[in-house]
Write a structure and sequence with these properties.
Helices cover 28% and strands 24% of the residues. The chain is an alpha/beta fold.
């Protein structure tokens, strides 16, 4: 009988084929055996009766903000939060760091800042902004996972939005090398300054129609150029219908949503901790987002972890920074709500591990199968917890989930066959296609 470097024994393991009692053999950081039969190993990890072995989650929408705004967040703190939440792979957004990742020089600055700080594996998005079309192919060749653009102001001066003409020009270039454009889709023509500082005025200033009009524009450009496109943080559920129609016509377009859109609503948003763009919406809209997940019309659920300092979250809905930090909490937040709606852990893994990995082409991530990276999350799905902001690892302990009673807790996370130690960064840089 072959001895493996590491063997997991669990009564419940989530694989692409379902849930089963299995033994997992690991050698050289990869999964080399998945079987109900006996395995022996130099190290054996036997899961407790209340624990489930999940693949490490993949979060393709994380704003780390380092360098430049490292007081908001940094690679050390963000990746500790990820590991504590069962997330073993993140893809970092090209903003709100300074410089923004819009050329190879800026990408190298970011990698230098991240080097030696990462507790999980990290890949990078690049940006598409006015004037940088000539930089896109070089960034693609450096292994970025795609190109983020805004259709409306991003909130930071160094990452301006693209006009519709500019988006189409970027998509022509990206299509030429079969890349991926991801879009923050809100049409500026439907946005306005809030008429006051309350949540109702903020919601009025960013109506669902802003998302729907921008989605229509991105769909049209994708149709004309053949470029693969993806809508980030979909909030307005009607957008799912528009995207499904486009997909049926052969347009290569997908979308994601986020834990906060699935679990929080605008009615609860009295605190600016709830402010995000696009905004939280009503319970009926939320029900339709869940229905979109159930129907397989949304590609994945990712955090859009967008932290800032506590000071920037003070004030009112007209002035506070719009972003929600949830990297560490995404799994129990989504599982608590999904369980109540009759979904299984297999569904959550599909949305938060396999789906994001498939979006960016990480074929060895987000699944427990032979040949995959030995990245795991040991999860206790029945354990109750109450969110204590002081126990969160991201840099500024601001969260709309403070005091929330959740079901499910991450007991440990494993990267390439080793238990993640939050005092010892061992994460690697990832590039597209690896």
């Amino acid at each position: 009988m072959t001895d493996f470097e590491l063997v997991f024994r669990a009564q419940r393991v989530i694989t692409p084929h379902g849930e089963a009692a299995l033994n997992i053999g690991v050698t050289a950081g990869r999964i080399v055996a998945v079987t109900p039969g006996e395995l022996t190993g130099r190290t054996v990890v036997e899961l407790a009766a209340d624990e489930v072995l999940l693949p490490g989650l993949v979060d393709t929408h994380v704003h780390v903000n380092e360098p430049g705004r490292t007081e908001w967040e940094g690679f050390a703190s963000a990746t500790r939060a990820a590991a504590a939440g069962g997330v073993t792979t993140i893809i970092d957004m090209p903003l709100n760091s300074i410089p923004a990742t819009v050329d190879v020089a800026a990408l190298n600055v970011k990698k230098k800042a991240a080097l030696g700080q990462c507790h999980v594996d990290v890949g990078f998005w690049a940006g598409a902004i006015p004037g940088n079309v000539p930089e896109l192919k070089a960034l693609q060749d450096e292994g970025v996972f795609g190109f983020k653009c805004f259709t409306s102001p991003s909130g930071v001066a160094e990452f301006p939005e693209l006009s519709w003409t500019g988006i189409e020009a970027a998509m022509v270039e990206i299509a030429s090398f079969d890349g991926l454009l991801i879009a923050h889709a809100e049409d500026p023509r439907s946005l306005s300054e809030p008429a006051g500082g309350g949540v109702a005025q903020f919601l009025d200033s960013r109506p669902p129609e802003a998302e729907l009009q921008a989605i229509a524009q991105v769909v049209g450009a994708a149709r004309r150029t053949g470029c693969r496109a993806h809508i980030v943080h979909l909030s307005a559920a009607e957008g799912i219908v528009r995207l499904a129609e486009a997909q049926a016509d052969g347009v290569r377009i997908t979308a994601e949503t986020c834990p906060h859109y699935l679990t929080l609503t605008a009615v609860e948003g009295a605190s600016t901790a709830y402010k995000c763009c696009p905004p939280l919406r009503d319970p009926g809209n939320q029900d339709r987002l869940w229905a979109g997940l159930a129907a397989g019309r949304l590609a994945c659920v990712v955090s859009d972890h967008s932290p800032c300092t506590a000071e920037l979250k003070r004030g009112d809905f007209a002035t506070a920074w719009g972003g929600i930090a949830s990297l560490q909490l995404g799994l129990p937040v989504v599982w608590t709500a999904a369980r109540d709606r009759g979904f299984a852990l297999l569904d959550v893994v599909r949305w938060m591990a396999a789906g994001p990995a498939d979006l960016v082409g990480l074929t060895r991530k987000g699944r427990i199968e032979v040949g995959a990276d030995a990245d795991f999350c040991v999860f206790a799905p029945e354990e109750a917890q109450t969110v204590d902001p002081a126990a969160l690892h991201h840099k500024n302990a601001v969260t709309p989930y403070a005091g929330a009673k959740l079901t499910g807790a991450v007991r440990s996370s494993w990267l390439a066959g080793s238990l993640i130690d939050l005092t010892e960064p061992r994460g690697r840089f990832l590039t597209r296609g690896v």
